[in-house]
Design goal:
Chain B: It is a peripheral membrane protein. Chain B: One of its GO terms (molecular function) is ATP binding. Chain B: It holds the Pfam family oligo_HPY. The structure holds two protein chains of two kinds. Chain A folds into two domains: 73 residues, no CATH class; 230 residues, MetI-like (MetI-like fold). In chain A, 76% of the residues lie in helices and 0% in strands. Chain A is built from twelve helices and no strands. Chain A is globular and about 85 Å long. Chain B has an eight-stranded mixed beta sheet, sandwiched between helices. In chain B, strands 2-1-4-5 form a four-stranded antiparallel beta sheet. In chain B, helix 3 packs across helix 4, helix 3 runs parallel beside helix 6 and helix 4 packs across helix 6. Chain B is globular, with a radius of gyration of 21 Å. Chain B starts with a strand and ends in a 22-residue tail after the last strand. The chains are: A mainly alpha, B alpha/beta.
């Protein structure tokens, strides 16, 4: 098992290297560069001045030289400085990573709290009114665009009813570390988390429902019934254990998806996380920040995939590595 | 013959298809005695498995209607609520399924799966359960039982898995074993081993066995009595020797004729024309086998075919057996392949 994890970790190195290359080249291929972004709409910036700056920051060098410089610094933890915020990218990100991770984590937990029971009910009692209700909700959540739903939630609960703050991650007047601070954080998290979770349940519910319907008909379930196992135990011990496998395996991908998917949510709720930063950075061609962010999202995906592999190998004896 | 263990009376199992119920088992009466192996034979789709599953109520009750009686240990299993039925399943009955590749839970160890029925039916300490399980594994011919106890199904071969399935069925010393095509999914060499094992076990445990199969070789090897099933009905019941020596019903004779013999290696196999009708399209009036023996004159069939006891313990349905003969040149005896 340890060897397996070690091997999976080692494979990550070439994966990350390849990712960095693609990210860098794609970012370079964006129209414009950090200088055009920084001086956009500034009538005083002359072409000579911009060219001077390009020369100064080495933006006129061939891309592979720029890449070499960038990756050399990146492995030492230095992603350069933001052109827009005029501070090191690492410092800039440090303040936001926590918020995004918190958002993703809570969204994930709430998604599972909603989706797993609903999936089980729909799968076990197929074609009952409860099942039909759940499936209807499922189609609704799949069909509703996230930004429309988020805006509606924001409009209804923050603007009209005023139950929750309109934006931010915490009330700035409250001192850090106090109980009130935690409460304030939760208040700010509630709407973004619920908006994300209520729509993210689709995959888990549908997958779980279908897998239970499928597993119900398996021979080993008949074997269990022939043993005299009570129906409730047939479900908990035989059907659910088998049907939850793919859900557990998807956990890693879900985490990666949520961190990447936070872009809309964070923008709409003005939640200061990576996603919001991502959008503004792209707009400003803040090249160093964009590459660092894509690297983070890519790394999250790679780690998520590895996590899925590890989880699956723990819960499923058939692919357990000796 | 010992005391009856199981008495099935006029069992009718109907499945709901598009709102209508169609009987897959249509008025079957059969008795199984202690220490007796009763084979139920017939082509695929005759209702053999439906019959086997009906005995312990393993059909989905939302889409299945069960009528008649299944008398077992002084109670009609069909009228028992599921909680009472669960006290019988796995305790007094054991079920052996067709495909050992799918009959075991892939996520539980063999040991756990054999112990599971003991959890519900026997009051044993976990040490006693383990001892009993290891003992069962040895009895079904698994030599390295300590190892297999902790293994998962995917780590075992098909034959070993089927042995484990048999061990599960035997876990609580049942008085009735239902084996639904226990050898069909296995390699021929493994089939022979499993049949040997079942014969050996049958001598030890003295319980009644219902053996569902379409393999007449297995029937000859194991059965004491044979019930031939066609389109949901039993068409002939006889002791095994009598059935092979003196088969009466046209369906039984057709089945026996379809066995490849090694005497005439090049002889064409006898083929029963047509297929078993599906339960929606079955004509339930008159002799159900009539469409597949079209040359038999209509007046030979009974209008409402009944079981007739032609000899002690030899029953046959319908009167069409009396003058039955295969048309010339169709039977394979002299019909050699020339090319």
């Amino acid at each position: 098992m340890l060897k397996f994890i070690l091997r999976r970790t080692l494979i990550m190195i070439p994966q990350l290297f390849l990712l960095s290359l693609i990210v860098f080249v794609l970012a370079k291929a964006m129209p414009g560069d950090a200088i055009t972004g920084a001086f956009a709409g500034d009538p005083n910036a002359t072409e000579e001045r911009k060219e001077e700056l390009r020369e100064k920051f080495g933006l006129n060098d061939p891309w592979y030289e720029q890449y070499g410089r960038w990756i050399g610094n990146a492995v030492q933890g230095d992603f350069g400085s933001s052109y827009m915020y005029k501070q090191p990218v690492t410092t800039l990100l440090a303040g936001k990573v926590g918020n995004t991770v918190l958002l993703a984590l809570f969204t994930l937990i709430i998604t599972y709290i909603i989706a797993i029971p609903l999936g089980i009910v729909a799968g076990r009692w197929t074609d009952t009114w409860a099942d039909k209700l759940i499936v209807t909700y499922n189609y609704f959540s799949f069909a509703t665009p996230l930004f429309v739903f988020s805006l509606l939630m924001l409009f209804l609960f923050s603007f009209i009813l005023g139950w929750f703050p309109i934006g931010g991650s915490v009330d700035i007047k409250i001192e850090e570390g106090t109980w009130d601070y935690i409460v304030s954080k939760m208040e700010h998290l509630f709407l973004p988390v619920m908006s994300g979770a209520l729509l993210a349940t689709f995959g888990t519910i549908q997958y779980l429902r279908n897998d239970i319907i499928d597993t119900k008909l398996k021979d080993f379930v008949k074997t269990a019934r022939a043993k005299g196992v009570p129906e409730r135990k047939v479900y908990t011990k035989h059907i659910l254990r088998n049907s939850l496998l793919p859900i557990a395996a998807f956990l890693g991908y879900e985490i990666a998806g949520l961190i990447g998917g936070s872009i809309f949510i964070e923008s709409i709720f003005s939640y200061p996380g990576l996603g919001q930063l991502f959008l503004t950075s792209i707009g400003a061609r803040d090249f160093t920040v964009v590459t660092a962010l894509v690297m983070i999202l890519g790394t999250a995906t790679i780690i998520g995939t590895m996590l899925s592999d590890i989880i699956l190998s723990i819960v499923d004896p058939r692919i357990r590595v000796e | 013959m010992g005391n009856p263990v199981l008495e099935i009376e006029e069992l009718r199992t109907s499945f709901s298809i598009k709102g209508d119920y169609h009987a897959a088992v249509d008025g079957v009466s059969l008795t199984v005695h202690e220490n007796e192996v009763v084979a139920i034979v017939g082509e695929s789709g005759c209702g053999k498995s439906a019959l086997a599953l009906s005995i312990i109520g393993l059909h989905d009750l939302k889409t299945t209607k069960l009528e008649g009686q299944v008398n077992f240990k002084g109670q009609n299993l069909l009228s028992l609520p599921i909680s009472k039925l669960n006290k019988v399943r796995g305790r007094d009955t054991g079920m052996i399924f067709q495909d050992p590749m799918t009959a075991l839970n892939p996520l539980a160890t063999i040991g756990r799966q054999i112990e599971e029925p003991m959890d519900y039916h026997l009051k044993l300490s976990s040490a006693a359960k383990k001892k009993r399980t290891l003992d069962l594994l040895r009895r079904v011919g698994i030599k390295n039982e300590q190892r297999v106890y902790g293994q998962y199904p995917h780590e075992l071969s098909g034959g070993m898995r089927q042995r484990a399935v048999i061990a599960i069925a035997l876990a609580c010393d049942p008085v009735l074993l239902i084996a639904d095509e226990p050898t069909t999914a296995l390699d021929v060499t493994i089939q022979a081993q499993i049949i040997d094992l079942m014969k050996e076990l049958q001598n030890q445990i003295k319980s009644g066995i219902i053996l569902i199969t379409h393999d007449l070789g297995v029937v000859a090897e194991m059965a004491d009595r044979v019930a031939v099933m066609y389109a949901g009905e039993l068409v002939e019941i006889a002791e095994v020797r009598e059935l092979f020596v003196n088969p009466l019903h046209p369906y039984t004779r057709s089945l026996l004729n379809s066995i490849p013999s090694n005497m005439e290696a090049k002889a064409k196999l006898h083929v029963i024309e047509g297929i078993v009708p599906s339960i929606q399209n079955l004509d339930r009036i008159g002799c159900r086998f009539a469409p597949r023996v079209a040359w038999v004159p209509e007046e030979d069939h009974e209008t409402n075919p009944q079981m007739h006891e032609v000899k002690p313990n030899h029953f046959v349905r319908c009167t069409c057996y009396k003058n039955f003969h295969f048309p010339e040149g169709r039977v394979g005896e002299k019909d050699y392949v020339t090319s």
